[in-house]
Design a protein that fits this description.
The protein has 2 domains: about 45 residues; about 90 residues. It is about 45% helix and about 25% strand. The longest helix has 28 residues. The mean pLDDT is about 75.
Length: about 160
């Protein structure tokens, strides 16, 4: 949540700086108020574009990729684990990066019931479908983890 706050603070600061410079430019060029409003609205929604892209990719490809991600859990976790968060961060015709939050493998950690781990899973596309390629721990309640996932997501109980 800390990094999400930093992200929004920095991007909205940049947006407000751009708006203040556009105010001066719009007044000098005498652009109509409707176009001014549309430019301001586009700038205000600019920080949410990465989230919209990930949400659109997840909505489009979740049904296709969820069974393959579950099948790949043999390599990075326990098969049959429940996914609390499932996001498709990046997808190309040959590779896909999927972010999942699941329970810790084998109940490791201090709270065996509630500890979770965030995983970044890389899948490659073959003629037989999506196959596991690699995984990284983005964060973990179960021990140490390296790396970070962008954009950050709060917890959600969607699966």
């Amino acid at each position: 949540m800390f990094w999400m706050t930093i992200y929004f603070f920095v991007t909205f600061s940049c947006v407000l700086a751009a708006i203040s410079s556009f105010v001066f430019l719009f007044r000098r060029l005498r652009i109509k108020i409707v176009w001014q409003f549309l430019c301001y609205a586009a700038l205000l929604f600019l920080p949410f574009v990465p989230y919209a892209v990930v949400a659109a990719q997840t909505a489009m490809y979740r049904v296709e990729m969820l069974p393959d991600v579950r099948a790949s859990s043999i390599y990075w976790g326990s098969p049959g684990e429940k996914y609390f968060v499932f996001r498709i961060l990046n997808i190309t015709p040959s590779r896909a990066k999927v972010y999942v939050v699941t329970s810790c493998e084998g109940g490791m950690g201090t709270d065996r019931e509630n500890d979770k781990v965030g995983m970044l899973i890389t899948l490659k596309h073959t003629s037989k479908g999506w196959k596991f390629a690699n995984y990284d721990a983005a964060w973990s309640d179960c021990g140490s983890a390296e790396g970070n996932t962008f954009p950050p997501y709060p917890e959600a109980r969607e699966f």
